Predict the 3D structure of the following.
Amino acid sequence: MSPFRASVPLTKSWEHFEFTVDDGVATVTFDRPEKLNALTFDVYADLRDLVAELPHRGDVRVLVLTGKGRGFCSGGDVEEIIGELQKMDTAELLEFTRMTGAVVKAMRETPIPIIAAINGVAAGAGSVLALASDLRLLAESAKFAFLFTKVGLAGADMGSAYLLPRLVGLGRATELLMLGDKLPAARAEAIGLANRVVPDDELAGEAAALARRLADGPALAYSTTKVLLTRELDSDLGSSIELEAITQALLMTAKDHKEFYAAWSAGRSPQWTGR
C-alpha cells in the first residue's frame, strides 16, 4: 500500500460489480447481464471511488474493464437512473452529472493503464467509459453508440466532446455524437476508436495477454507515459518538451532504467520491478 495513503482504509470489497486482482492485473466486470450491464447510481459511484483507490493499493499495475454476457455496458439504466432523474431538481441533477463526469476524470488521471475489453454493445455512458480507457480491444460483434441525442440530451456528456475528437477528429466526432448511430467494430477500428478487433471467442485471451504485458513490463515507464499523454493534450509544444525532458531525466535515475542497462550488458532479459 502507498505510504502516502491517509488513514481512511481501502475498500475490501465492491458490491456493484465484480472486482478481482491477480498478479498486478485488476479486473472490473460489470455484472448485470440481464440488462446489458446498464449502470446504476451505485455503479457510477463505486467505479469512481475504485479508480481513485487503485494507485494506493500497491498491487495493481493495470486495470481491465469488461462486461458479463452479451454487452459491455448499455449506459444508464432507464428505470433506475433516467426514471429517477425525472424527480430531481436542478441542483440534484447537477450533482449527478458531476458525479458521472468524475468517473471519467478519475480514469484519465489515474496513472494505472486501463484496457477496455468490449465484448458487446458499448452505448451511451458505456461508450464514454470505453472512450476514457487507454486501450480498446473490441470483439467483432461489438458496437459503439453515443446515444445521448436519441434521448433528447446533448451528445457532449461525461467528457465525450473533449476526448472523442482527439481520437477520431472533429468531423467524425461530430457525426458520432450528434447522430448517435451505431458504430460497428470494424468501422471503429478504421477510424481509430478501436486499437484492435478480434474474434469474439478470442477477446478475453487477447485482453489478458495485453494486461499481462503491461503488468510484467516497466510499469513506471508505462504509467508516466499515460500521465504525460493526458497532461499534454492542452499543452503547447515548448511546455510539452520541457515536461518530457524533466520526466525523462527523472526516469533515467529509476531502477528499471538501470536494470535495462545491466540486462543489456549481461545479454539477458530485463527483470522489471516498476521502480
Strands lie at 18-22, 24-30, 60-67, 71-73, 114-118, 121-123, 135-139, 143-145, 183-184, 196-198.
